Structures are given as C-alpha cells and as structure tokens.
Amino acid sequence: MISNWLASTLARRNIHYGWVMVGVTFFAALISAGTVGAPGVFIVPLQKEFGWSTAEISSALSIRFILFGLMAPFAAALLNRYGLRNMTLIAQLVVISGLVASLLMTQVWQLMLLWGVVIGIGTGMTALVLGATVAARWFVARRGLVVGILTASVATGQLAFLPLLATLTERYGWRLALAFVCIMLGVAAFAVLMVMRDRPSDLGLRPLGDDGTAPLPAPPPANAPITAVALGTLRDSSKSSVFWILFATFFICGASTNGLVQVHLIPMCLDFGIPQVQAASLLAAMGIFDFFGTIISGWLSDRYDNRWLLFWYYGLRGLSLVALPFSDFSFYGLSLFAMFYGLDWIATVPPTVRLTAQRFGAERANLVFGWIFAGHQLGAGMAAFGGGLSRTLYASYLPAFFIAGALCVVASLIVLAISRPKPAVQAKPAAA
Predict the structure, then answer these.
(1) Rounded CA gap, 253 and 354, in Å?
(2) Contacts from 171-174 at CB under 8 Å and sequence distance 24+?
(3) 139, β-bridge pairs
(4) Residues 358, 301: contact at Cβ < 8 Å?
(5) I want to staple 62 with a disulfide (CB 3.0 to 4.6 A). Which of 169, 185, 342, 381 is the partner?
(6) Would you say 242 and 351 are in contact if contact means Cβ atoms under 8 Å apart?
(7) What is the reported pLDDT for 422?
(8) Which residues contact 201 (CB under 8 A, 6 or more apart)?
(9) Which residues make beta-bridge pairs with 115?
(10) Which one, of 180, 152, 186, lies nearest residue 164 by Cα?
(11) Count of CB atoms within 10 A of residue 136's CB?
C-alpha cells in the first residue's frame, strides 16, 4: 500500500507518519465541514425557488445539527471498533448520497430528510471526535497543538468555502454549487483511502513522542456492543459535575457559533443590504482568523490553566455578539467583528478536550468528549431554529444574537466552578 512506502520514505527523513495522518485528516475534515456550512448560502435561493419560510429551512438545519452532535459519542465507539479509515469513508459516502439525492428535492419534507437526517448522521459519524482520536493515538508530544490544528480544519472548512459557493450559487444556481461540494467530498474520500491508517502499530511505529517505555494500548475488544460502550460512558461520566459543566458550556458554544452565526449571518446581512457574496466573504475571513486562533489556543492549552482560557474565550465572544448590532453593519464594523470573533470561533475546543482527558483519562477521553460535543450540537440546533423563528416572528435576527451573547457570559462564569486538579501525593518512604 502507498502508506507503507510513504512511511518508510518519511522515516529516512526523520519525519513521523503521524504528520501525514494530520494532513489527510485535516483535508477530510475541511471538506466535510464545508458540507455542514454550505446550507447557510442556500437559505435565500431555496426561499425564492420553493417559497419555504426561514423557520422551515432552519428546522432542517436544526435536525442536522442535533443528529451531528448525538452521533458523536457513538462515532467514537464506531471509530474504536471499525477503524478510522473505514468509518471516515463510510461517513463521506453517506453524505455524498444525501447531497446527490437533494439535487432533485422539491418538498420541504425532503429537505428535512436529506439535509437534516441523512447529512446529520453522515457528518456525525466522524464529527470532532475523529481529530481527537487521531491526536490521542498518533501523538504523545504536541498533542494539544495537533488538536488545535484539526479543530481549526472543522471550523475553517465551515466558513472558507462560502464565498466560492455563494459565487457559484449567484451565477449558476444552488444545484451546481452543491454538485461542486460532492466532487470535493469524492476527492477527500480518495485521499483517505490511499493514506489513512488506524494506528501507528499498523506501520510498525509508536506514537510521536513515545519513548518506548510504556506498552502500546491494546485495541478495544471486538465484541463490545457500540451502544453499551457509548451509553456506559455517559452513565459513568454523568456522575461528575465536571462533565455537566463542560456539557453546558459546550452547549452555549454551539448556540453561539455553528447554529447562529454560521447559519444566519448571511441572511441577516442581506436584511441590512449587504450582498450575499460579500457576507459570505465575511464568514470566510472569520474562518481564516479562526484557523490561527484555534492553533494558538491548542498551544496555550498545553501551557496554561484551561479553565481561565475558557473564561476569557466565552467572555470575549459574548461581548462581541452583543456589540455586533451596534456596528451599524459598516465595512469597518463588520471587519472588526470578523477578526475579533473569528479568533475565538472554536478556540474553546482544545482546552475542553484537555480538561476532558485530565478528568476522565486518556483511554475514555474521545468517548466522553463525544457526549460533551453532543451538547455543543444540541445548542447549535436550538440556535439554528431559534434564529429562524426570531426572523419569522419579529422580522429580525437581533434578539437571537443578544441571547447568545448573554449565554456566553454565563458560560465564562460557570467554567470557573471546575476545581483545579489535585497534585499527585508522593508516597512517604517507609520508616527504617
């Protein structure tokens, strides 16, 4: 296989194959995340062609966000059972099938089935737990940095393709833009097939930074039921207050990013007379700033108290959301918002992942984080529907933005309720 040849070639240059895994996972997550972010461009074209209300379209996107999150803990168990490459390929094929079928949809129930259920399940089969699993399996050193890089790919992918998709939609229609997304997913699936491997031991390697003194973790038993593993993890972790604090703060994280800004910022800009392509470019700029912000967050999470990092991330995000309506939606005001908010878009993930690993152990970290991420997507689903409902009932998105900003301030305070980890107590030498 090409991965064996590539691993030996890189080894001669003292490059660990884990960085190839980071590259292919980054690319696959980037394209998959672009699929999640694309419907924000299509809301207005779908309204014009089919006459669907904002609330109806937002309902389908809300279903997708919720299923995307609820699949996360089961995705971690599926990745452990069937391997990274197999599950990533299956997930991409499910998403491609749903997108291709949606090219022919004419009824709102078809939108809910395909964009809500099918794509929600397909994207949720890997979700953020794929990056967390790659980082945990392939890296001992620089793990926080790798989590930051792979997390950045998800948020950046949700935003970076929007100007191109908006341009294609404006010139050729939403169906051609959606076909372009399908082609890119096919390219990503081919890359995964060629070079992704499940574990370093598949190539006779140890994780990067492993000095060889510790035994390699054994693969999980093949006969463990997926639902039993996922639900058992929820049962055990839910006994801890730390789990519920991280769950609640991540719920607010999803409500203030994916579900609100990603879905509704473009239609809201249209309400203020800003063209769709320009509004999509604003989101793309956020994606660029987020790329650097999340990587820096991963670097910081290896060095500083993760609780205080989350305090500042949520607090500053809340202030930016509350301040947005007062920017007059001028070029200067929106540019400042894009930079400030973009740096903080999903910088919360590396500290949350590290807190999860510290409190629940490295072996169960991806499973516990899967349930915490489910909270993130429940929040996103609530905000996606709530933003559309606000626009339908009050002819404005602004109440949803004010509520999201206030929730972020709440999250910045409750995260400090997590106690500091107790230092290890050294055993006293026995008396002579």
Answers:
(1) 16
(2) 173/45, 174/41, 174/42, 174/45, 174/46, 174/49
(3) 208
(4) no
(5) 381
(6) no
(7) 57
(8) 216
(9) none
(10) 180
(11) 22
Taking the C-alpha atoms of residue 43 and residue 283, their distance in angstroms, rounded to an integer, is 15
Tokens of 314: 């949520």
This prediction's pTM: 0.70
Give me the residue label for tokens 């769709």. 276
Structure tokens belonging to residue 348:
């919360």
DSSP-derived 3-state class of residue 88: helix
Q: Say if CB 264 and CB 44 are below 8 A apart.
A: no
Q: Helices 276-301 & 306-323, crossing angle to 10 degrees?
A: 160
Domains, the chain, ranges and CATH? 2-199+229-417 (1.20.1250.20)
Note whether 192 and 88 are within 8 A (CB). yes
- The whole-number pLDDT of residue 378 equals 85
Reduced DSSP (H G I as helix, E B as strand, rest coil) percent helix, strand, coil of the chain, to 5: 80, 0, 20
Token reading at 40:
């924000």
Is residue 216 within 8 A of residue 205, CB to CB? The reply is no
What pLDDT score was predicted for residue 159? 65
pLDDT at 426: 42
Three-class SS of residue 389?
helix
Q: 106: which 2 tokens? A: 């004419």
What is the distance between the alpha carbons of residues 371 and 357, in angstroms, rounded to a whole number? 13
User: At CA 353, angle to CA 415 and CA 209, rounded to 5?
Assistant: 140
Residue ranges in the chain modelled with pLDDT below 70: 1, 37, 40, 127-128, 155-156, 158-160, 211-226, 362-363, 421-432
Number of H helices, E strands in the chain: 21, 0
- Angle, helices 263-271 vs 276-301, to 10°: value is 140
Q: How high is the pLDDT of residue 215?
A: 54
For residue 208, give the 3-state DSSP assignment: strand
Q: Find how far residue 77's CA is from the centre of its chain.
A: 18
Residue 21: CB partners within 8 Å, gap ≥ 6?
134, 138, 196, 197
The Cα 53–Cα 241 span in angstroms is 40
Name, in order, each residue with C-beta under 8 angstroms of 361's C-beta and a sequence gap of 6 or more: none
- List of residues 6+ apart from 146 with CB closer than 8 A: 18, 22, 131, 134, 135, 138, 139, 298
Q: For residues 129 and 147, what is the distance between their CA atoms, to the nearest angstrom?
A: 10
Q: In this predicted structure, what is the pLDDT of residue 275? A: 80
Tens of pLDDT along 282-322? 777 777 787 788 788 877 887 888 889 999 999 989 888 88
430: left (phi over 0), alpha (psi -120 to 50) or beta: beta
